[in-house]
Amino acid sequence: QKLGIVPLSGFFKAWWKDPRLEFNGTSSGGCFDVVTLSSAEVARWLWTPDLYIDNLVEKTVDGFASSAVIEPDGTVLRTEQVILKVKNYLGLGKLPYDRHTAMISVASYSQDTTRLRLTARGGVVGGGQTGIGITAPPISSATWSFPGEGKEGFSTPG
Predict the structure, then answer these.
(1) Torsions phi, psi for 144 (to 5 deg)
(2) Which listed residue, 5, 12, 34, 114, has the most CB atoms within 10 A of its CB?
(3) Is the peptide bond before 96 cis (omega within 30 degrees of 0)?
(4) Distances from the Cα of 39 to the Cα of 68, 77, 122, angstroms
(5) What is the pLDDT of residues 54-111, one digit of tens each?
(6) Helix, strand, coil percent values for the chain (each to nearest 5)
(7) Taking a C-beta distance cutoff of 8 angstroms, is the pair 8, 105 a contact?
(8) Backbone angles phi and psi of 19, in degrees to 5
(9) Are strands 124-126 and 66-70 parallel, antiparallel or unpaired?
(10) CB count, 10 Å around CB of 84?
């Protein structure tokens, strides 16, 4: 196997719930249903989880879009357009018929699992050998292939 650098382009999205940000939406007598913040406002005013990509080589965000949307129940969606270069091991034994999976390992700098749990969107935190496992809904793409594609999703035992 060889160590390869895989370039990826897309949107890094993170959702979390912060009860301090709850407000009344229009159905509860409020004036609006969402609050949208620019990247500068996010950096100045909004707490965000300190997530990092463990196998990251390079991240480019300069000049790209970034924003956050806050819903009445305190749910926050932060979206950031990025170009990533990540380290992955590539098995080259079947060239030119080889297939590779580009893995992205996301973690928190300061929060342990008693305070922050990471799951795929729509997934649930479950038990496992370490007490932490994830189950995710099906993912499909015309360009990429994902484990469990077109089936019931994927899960990790923890």
Answers:
(1) -110, 155
(2) 12
(3) yes
(4) 7, 12, 25
(5) 888 888 877 787 889 999 999 999 988 888 888 887 777 777 777 777 777 788 888 7
(6) 10, 40, 55
(7) no
(8) -60, -20
(9) unpaired
(10) 20
Q: How many alpha carbons fall within 13 Å on the CB side of residue 35? A: 19
Q: Which DSSP helix (H) or strand (E) runs through 26?
A: none
Q: Which residue has the tokens 């924003």?
A: 67
In terms of C-beta density within 10 A (0-12 exposed, 13-18 middle, 19 or more buried), how is residue 127 classed?
exposed
In total, the chain counts a number of residues equal to 158
CA-to-CA separations, 104 to 30, 55, 132, in angstroms, rounded: 40, 7, 18
DSSP 84: E
Question: Which among 14, 18, 124 has a CA at the least distance from the CA of 71?
Answer: 18
For residues 84 and 96, give the distance between their C-alpha atoms in angstroms, rounded to a whole number: 25
Structure tokens at 33: 């249903």
At position 97, the amino acid (one-letter code) is: Y
pTM, rounded to two decimals = 0.67
- How many Å apart are CA 90 and CA 101, to the nearest integer? 8
Alpha helix positions (H), the chain: 39-45
